[in-house]
Every structure is written in structure tokens, then in C-alpha cells.
From TrEMBL:
It catalyses: (S)-malate + NAD(+) = oxaloacetate + NADH + H(+). The keyword Repressor does not apply. Keywords: NAD, Oxidoreductase, Tricarboxylic acid cycle. The gene is mdh. This is Malate dehydrogenase.
């Protein structure tokens, strides 16, 4: 029988965790024939709630779910982990400065990176969802020097999926007809959803929409969708974030020709080496590769440079704080 894959979810008692765990256990993260064990990491005051979720997972009698553990100890949670989904993070509270936010998250992602370094399986793959996701991923990575750097990634797949659905609605086409969508840069308001390489029925998407819509509606709608959902729902997007995390890991493991993911830059497209920035990526043999050879026009160049500048500022800030 196949050895179960160990999947660890941090912030397991949170909203995204609740939307994520049942789908992992049902086989949607890795494939319908891959058994899993789940490790739920929480802070001490949320362990009881996570235990409640574990009881519900038991009650689903998922055939692929071979074990559940609930813990507040990162060394236990990441012991032998194959897929780590880092969801729990310190949210920005009112009046909090960026430095305080980064400091608080350094206190979470630094120790978690070290615990991954010391305990994870050799094939560990890490996806950071908790914000600021790109820089939290960088902090974890820099605290895990024995793990190949490329195994630390951050999620821009929700932005990618939002871009697909906005464009599909505008052009009145099924989402599956859209190819080569790309999100560049930071998972933040500066992100750049790129229609100059996206294709619909073999035509460049940017040529099928008017420039004003692209610039003044599409880009801000995708970038600010999270806030619009909070406004409408009275709570942040959780199911769609969980869905995107599933998509990211599934494609990483099982392969894809083109999607968006924040991965460590090798210097491609002028993005400074080492920044964990979103690119157009393919996955082959379980490894992300940046899609090469795209021409970047002046409009896109400016947008990419702006979001990458923000990532550089965040990296400088966490360096100054001694977090990396
Ligand atoms: P959620 O489960 O809703 O969100 C968790 C994180 O995901 C937040 O940082 C959030 O960022 C981020 N996120 C990324 N993309 C999205 C998106 N598209 N929509 C919404 N969120 C997104 O938060 P909860 O407060 O419900 O739960 C967090 C849990 O994490 C709590 O149970 C807490 O106890 C736990 N926690 C666990 C830690 C650990 O395991 N060591 C450490 C810290 C917290 P944003 O805030 O910007 O929305």
C-alpha cells in the first residue's frame, strides 16, 4: 500500500483552514488515489477548536484520510511533513505599522521555517497563504537553509483565478477557454494581472478588450477583490482562498503548462534574484519553472517594476529587523 503523504496546515482552526482541510482529506490536494495524514498546527488557545475540526474530519470517514494530529508544537507538526500549508499569520490590526506586522510574522514564520528545516521530509513543499505571503515565505525559507530554496512558495493563484473569472465574464466565454493568464509580483494591491500574454481562442486577451477597461476596471478589480468580498460577505474570502491553495499544490505536484505562483526569482524578467515573486510558471517533474522568452512591453514593465519594488522594500525591512 502507498505510504500516506503528510500534509500540515497551520492556522488550522481559522476560516481558510476550515474550508481547506475537508478538501485535502477527500483527495483534492494531491489526487484521488493518494492517501494522506493531516497535521493541524494551532496556537495554544485555538487547539481546542482545531480538535473540534478533527472530530468532524473523523466523522466524514474519508477513505484517503489515514490519520490526524492536532498540536501547538511546530516540531511535531512538521515532523516528516511532505506538504506544508502555512495559513496562520498575524493579521494587520488597526493602526499597526508595517514594521510591527513584519515583526509579528517574523515571530511565526522564522520558527516555522526552522522547524521545517529540522524535521521535514526531503521532498517537502511549502505554500505560504498567510499574509504578507511573499515575504512570510521568504522569512521561512531563510530560516531553513538545509531545504532547497525553490521549495518555498507563496500563493497568487487566487489572484490568477480571479483574473480568469473577471475576463471570462467580460468576454462571455467559459474560463477554460482562457490560456496563459499571469499574475506578476506581490500578493498585494500592487500585483499585476497581465492580459498581454493571456489568450482566448488563440487571440491575445488585451486586444479583445478596450484599454480603459483593462487599466481602470480589470486590474483594480482583481487587485481589490479581497476587500470587495469582505465588504459583501462581512468576512474575508476563505473558501476561494482554500480552493486556490488546492490548485497551487495540485499543479505543483501533478504538472501544468501555465499558471501563476510566487516562487524564488532566478533573475528572470529583471526580478532580483531571491525575491519570492509571482511569475508565469509551468510545473514539470514536480518543479516549478518560470515561463521564459515573453516580451514585456512598456506598460507591463512599469507595472512589474512597481510590484517588485514593493517586494524589495519588504525584503529590506525584514533584513533590517534581523528576521532573515
Ligand atoms: P483566515 O483563515 O481567514 O486567514 C489566514 C491567513 O490567510 C491570513 O493571514 C490572511 O491574510 C491570509 N490570506 C491570504 N489570502 C487570503 C485571501 N484571499 N482571503 C483571505 N485571507 C487570505 O484567518 P482566521 O483569522 O480565520 O484564522 C487564522 C488562524 O491562524 C487562527 O485560528 C489563529 O489561531 C491561527 N494562527 C496560527 C498560527 C500557528 O499555527 N502557529 C500562528 C498565527 C495564527 P489577511 O489577514 O491579510 O486577510
Amino acid at each position: 500500500a502507498q505510504t500516506p503523504v503528510k500534509v500540515t496546515v497551520t492556522g488550522a482552526a481559522g476560516q481558510i483552514g476550515y474550508a481547506l482541510l475537508f478538501r485535502i482529506a477527500s483527495g483534492q490536494l494531491l489526487g484521488a488515489d493518494v492517501p494522506v495524514t493531516l497535521s493541524l498546527l494551532e496556537i495554544p488557545q485555538a487547539v481546542k477548536a482545531a480538535e473540534g475540526t478533527a472530530m468532524e474530519l473523523d466523522d466524514c470517514a474519508f477513505p484517503l484520510l489515514r490519520g490526524i494530529e492536532v498540536t501547538d508544537d511546530p516540531n511535531t507538526a512538521f515532523n516528516g511533513v511532505n506538504v506544508a500549508l502555512l495559513v496562520g499569520a498575524r493579521p494587520r490590526s488597526k493602526g499597526m505599522e508595517r514594521g510591527d506586522l513584519l515583526q509579528a510574522n517574523g515571530g511565526i514564520f522564522g520558527p516555522q521555517g526552522k522547524a521545517i528545516n529540522d524535521n521535514a521530509a526531503d521532498d517537502v513543499r511549502v505554500l505560504v497563504v498567510g499574509n504578507p505571503a511573499n515575504t512570510n515565505a521568504l522569512i521561512a525559507q531563510q530560516n531553513a537553509p538545509d531545504v532547497p530554496a525553490e521549495r518555498f512558495t507563496a500563493m497568487t493563484r487566487l489572484d490568477h483565478n480571479r483574473a480568469l473569472s473577471q475576463l471570462a465574464a467580460k468576454l462571455q466565454v467559459p474560463v477554460a477557454e482562457i490560456k496563459k493568464m499571469t499574475i506578476w509580483g506581490n500578493h498585494s494591491a500592487t500585483q499585476y494581472p497581465d492580459l498581454f500574454h493571456a489568450e482566448v481562442g488563440g487571440k491575445v486577451a488585451a486586444e479583445l478588450v478596450d484599454e480603459t477597461w483593462l487599466r481602470d476596471t480589470f486590474i483594480p478589480t482583481v487587485a481589490k477583490r479581497g476587500a470587495a468580498i469582505i465588504e459583501a460577505r462581512g468576512a474575508s474570502s476563505a473558501a476561494s482562498a482554500a480552493n486556490a491553495a488546492i490548485d497551487h499544490v495540485f499543479d505543483w505536484v501533478n504538472g501544468t503548462d501555465w499558471t501563476s505562483a510566487a516562487i524564488p526569482s532566478d533573475g528572470s524578467y529583471g526580478v532580483p534574484e531571491g525575491l519570492i515573486s509571482s511569475f508565469p510558471v509551468a510545473s514539470r517533474g514536480g518543479r516549478w519553472e518560470i515561463v521564459q522568452g515573453l516580451e514585456i512591453d512598456a506598460f507591463s514593465r512599469e507595472k512589474i517594476d512597481a510590484t517588485v519594488a514593493e517586494l524589495e522594500e519588504e525584503r529590506s525591512a525584514v533584513r533590517e529587523l534581523g528576521l532573515i
